[in-house]
Design a protein that fits this description.
- It is built from 12 helices and 7 strands.
- It is α/β, with parallel strands linked by helices.
- Strands 3-2-1-4-5-7-6 form a 7-stranded mixed sheet, with helices on both faces.
- It is elongated, with a radius of gyration of 40 Å.
Length: 340
Amino acid sequence: MTLPERYDYAFDPEGDSLPAKVVRRVPAGSRVLELGTGPGAMTRVLAERGCRVTGIERDETLAARARPHCERMIVGDLLALDWSATLGAERFERILACDVLEHLDEPETVLAALPPFLAPEGRLLLTLPNLAHYGVVAALLQESFDYADKGLLDRTHERFYTRHSLERLLLATGWIPLQWEANRVDVGATEFARHWYDLPESLRQTLQRHAAELDVYQWLVVAVPANETGWQDRAATEIAALHERLESARREHEALQRSFDEHLASLKEHQKAFAEARAWIADLQREIADLQREIDELTRERDHYRSLYRGVALTPFWRRLVASLHRRCGELLERWNEGR
């Protein structure tokens, strides 16, 4: 697979892909420094949004394809670049390092060099693969760590990161991560689907239950320089907004809990009533069964006397006895019908 084939792609700027999420965080008309443009998939969209892009790309073939969309194209190695001599007094509203740092042996060198070139109120936007994705975990559990032409285990990756190790890298190089956005990809749509579904179902459920960020395929991070004036105030504002959202969620949770408790209490009352009704019905059924047995016995007795005295003139005593039996059978039948 050639470099252009590996890194060229098209995306809908209004879609849900990670490149679309990145470009939507770049205000139209911004001055943008894009590290590692590749063949210019994102560069082209940025230019269409009126952005003035300075691109840096070490591969000449890829740089040539991205150059038409750049205000300036710099061909060079990020680790060997003389930043001050190359960029001078230029300042950018956005610096993009999208799926770039993992290809560098010393990404901390690049990150540490960038703060002077960010304009006031500017932002660093970077994306990196997440090594803690449950596809990689599943592969490791099966003693597999196979590199490929692309994906999380791209054979050109020099470094691997989780959220926590990326956060440490940023803090160590003078950056404060303000926002984290997860690009979640179901394992069935990744290169690790086979490894995942080869795991026992119980193990998959355990992993999903205890690791909420296992489906994060890539992280999108928004960062500012640690020494930037006012970032603490903005961070405090964002924290306050998050706190308000948390309080709102807590109040909603409490309301839902109260509603649940009320419905549960009502359900228990209904269950109690149903239990009593079932016991009453069972008693009626037993009584009906007893009556039915008595009716059957009396019916057999009546029929016996009828056959025994058929054609025989009955004395008044026997007539009274038969009439009494008829009345008793009628009463029992009436009670049985009422019980039904």
